Automatic annotation (TrEMBL), chain A:
Protein name according to UniProt: Dipeptide/oligopeptide/nickel ABC transporter permease/ATP-binding protein
Organism: Paractinoplanes aksuensis
Protein topology in the membrane: Multi-pass membrane protein; Peripheral membrane protein
Family, as annotated: Belongs to the ABC transporter superfamily.
Keywords: ATP-binding, Cell membrane, Membrane, Nucleotide-binding, Transmembrane, Transmembrane helix, Transport
Residue ranges crossing the lipid bilayer per the database entry: 84-106, 113-137, 199-222, 242-263
Limits of the ABC transmembrane type-1 domain: 78-267
Annotated NCBIfam families: oligo_HPY (TIGR01727)
Automatic annotation (TrEMBL), chain B:
Organism: Paractinoplanes aksuensis
Membrane-topology descriptor: Multi-pass membrane protein
Membrane-spanning intervals of the chain: 22-40, 112-134, 146-175, 187-206, 241-263, 292-313
Name the UniProt record assigns to this protein: ABC transporter permease
Residues annotated as domain ABC transmembrane type-1: 105-306
Amino acid sequence: MKATAARRWTGALRSPLGITAAVLLAAVVLLAVVAPLIWSGRADAVQSAEILQGPSSAHPVGTDLLGRDILARVLVATRLSVGLALLATAIGVTAGLLLGTANVLLGRWIGRWVGTLINIAVAFPSLLLALFFAVIFGVGAKGAVLAIGFATAPGFARLTQTMAATVSGRDFIAAARVAGIGRMRILVRHVLPNIAEPLIVSATMAAGSALLAFASLSFLGLGVQAPSYDWGRLLGEGLAQIYVHPAGALAAGVAVVLAAMAFNLSGEAVARAIGLRSAQTGRRTEHTYEPPPADPEPDGPDQPLLAVENLHVTFPAAGGPVTPVRGVSLSVRRGEAIGIVGESGSGKSLTALAIAQLIEHPGRVRAERLEFLGTDLREKADHRRLLGTSLSMVFQDPMTSLNPTQRVGRQLAEVVREHQGADRRTAWRRAVDRLAAVRIPSAERRAKQLPHEFSGGMRQRAMIGMGVMANPQLIIADEPTTALDVTVQRQVLQLIANIRAAERVGLLFISHDVTVVGQVCERVLVMYAGRIVEDLPTDALLHDARHPYTRALVAAVPDMTTDRNAPLAVIPGRPPDPHDLPAGCPYAPRCLLATDRCRREDPALTTYAIGRRVACWHADQAPAAIPDNRTTVPDDDKTDDPIAAPLGGERP
Amino acid sequence: MKVATVTDGPWARFGMRRAGRLVLSVWVLVTAAFLMIHVLPGDPVRAALGPTAPLSLIEQRREALGFNDPLWLQYLNYLRKLLTGDMGVSMTSGLPVQEVISARLGSTIQMALLAFALAVVVSVPLGLLMAVLARDSRRRGGDWALTSAGVVVATIPEFLMAVGLVFVFSVQLGWFPVAGRSGPDSYVLPVLALAIGPAFMLARIVRVELLAVLQTDYIRTARAKRLRAGAIYLRHALPNALTATLTLGGLLLGSLVAGTVLIENIFAWPGLGGTIVQSILAKDYPTVQGVVLVYGIGVLLINLVVDVALAVLDPRSAIRES
Ligand code: SF4
């Protein structure tokens, strides 16, 4: 623990930022120690013959009103300026720590009152607080130290409080309390060590601010008094002479900025080094990809709406690029509904985004064929209009997928205004009409509301309404029902089915839920680790799936006797990390049928019957070979089919 | 956003909460201003009149100021007078404090508002530009340069910025007067000195917030609608980024008020900043008390305006809070 902490702190030194900060800070500290020893004489030597002289070899930045060497004075002032700032910071940090941990130290009740006071105090800028305290503690160096210290305290207290609150909530603190360990001990032994790093970082930055604040007070004449001098005072004296002799003010100013920056950058560098903790995990191996032999699409009589061949999506990553989608081929015909199922991380959503041309930099999409309505989407041309009117997306989370600051109607209307040049009124009428079409009651009124005034189900329907603002030929729905409860889910599925039937649009339906996909789609593509591992008609899903993964997915569906709200049964094991794919079949570590061959060679997706493809070496093994503890399947029960059931019909 | 919703439950609760917080804060502020004088070590009257003042004069002044009454009575008198707008009499000039303040408050407000407006007007497009550059892989360098410049500029405190500006534009170029308030050109340097730091700081916030908003699901929805990039940035991303910008902008406006104290002293600006420093140095406590109150209330009002604006822009934040 100690060793890794030390490594992280020294790690801060390895960045350019860290080096700059360390060099600056070392210089400041060194000057503070040695400058008064070396240059005091020069700095205080009054030479009436050399008043207010410009730079010369004897005086590199000239002399002041009494003929004293300015450079020497600025260097000598380092000790007082930095020392007083550090003293003020120490006071502020101590006071802040005490105030911020008041609820641990003094109990909840007093802690709350202290908290309220802190909240009021942090509302005031610290310079105003410093002025206020300067009145109380009096003009002069001592008063200014106390004033700046106390002005720093509230901000620090707030920070401590917030962080201590998160730590105090943790189990080990509760355990310590139950064990009857004293408050002070809990604080010192358990709370403070856990928040020490961020506190040290902000204390470092606070020292920078204290330095500036001290310079301000001295500059105003409220801090260090003559004949002592710090940078603020030198700055004030220099400003009076700025016309005759600007070097005085500038030299002091530069010193203040550099010193303040030394502290701020140090804090920043350490903060980054600490924050980077998670980025330095493990090595990454690059997976070399071999394209599977192109598999001929089952040919149909009419031209597909969407044709995708050998689609890849690649992202750059720390240890080399990762490819979460690795060679997906599929096609959707007019009026056809295709489902893609898989666990999260299988690449199904990325496949959808890639098809819709919504993968953003730095992601890259490659494909041998990517055609929508006969247009090659891989070409660099502007497909905005085509995609904007003919392809629509329905996204997963209706809570976050609508713009929270815009009226729902306007968000719908935008689609036709943008692509069909409709005027404001026409677009609005169309939006209200679409909202009504997706069964949003009093659509006219609702259209004027913001998304947060809608229920989750209504938002999802509004989202679908947005999808049918123009005249889509293909709807890509990415987990459109996941965030909804069962009744609303059924209504939304019904709505999608209705739209599909009425407009003969194609549907690409993405879900982790085999049951839902089975209810909506005619054909199911099962994805695993970025590839399609099985392609089969929905009827075959239950009893004739060939891939062990598909069977496991089906087996994981709860049957009619289990509570629908209970967490889904899961397939043991986890999907492979796309950073580090195993050799051979990616499902092998979780597969009950895995053999040596599976672990050596990656099976390709091959057609074994008309309209059936599978990627498994042992696809011919009887389904019975797979342990299956299920008896009933929800899909068998036709009355549970939301499409067959009347909308809003009563269901258990 | 609609007027009708203001009377609804969450809004009423938000209003009550916010008003309660304001009243509590003002009370703490007033009490602190009162106590400020009374927790002073030593006798403020003696301090104000100087060590050579005769005892009889000190006693006379103490009596006149009510310093011989018990503390609670002084407190009640102080509150009562404040409510009638009476802030006491300046120990140095003998003028009522409220007159001193009202004569100088205007020019401070003027400077602070001008600087804030400038900071906002500059920072939003600048932040937008930085975000657009950051999103464009080929022009990352531009974003990097602007961001680093912003970090450096934002660490330079306003009074050093002022010294630098005076050196370049008054001493070297002679374009603007070095001090005082006269024609429009006398506004340029003080307002610039106050605004430059906050402008860069705000621009950084706008940039960070925009980049965060651009990652959200509703921006993906907007992109799925195939809107033009301009519409996505301006219509969908910017309004959502501005709520957070406003919160931090409010804090910035508060510290900008504090910055005026220094700037006014550098430029000999006839505002409250000069008054407070002079009266602290002259130990003119009634004036200090009054000016501290005015600054404090100013900051509290700014916070109030920010909170209300935030609630109107993003009703969820207000409702979530209550
Ligand atoms: S190839 Fe082997 S490991 Fe992979 S799914 Fe088939 S049986 Fe299991």
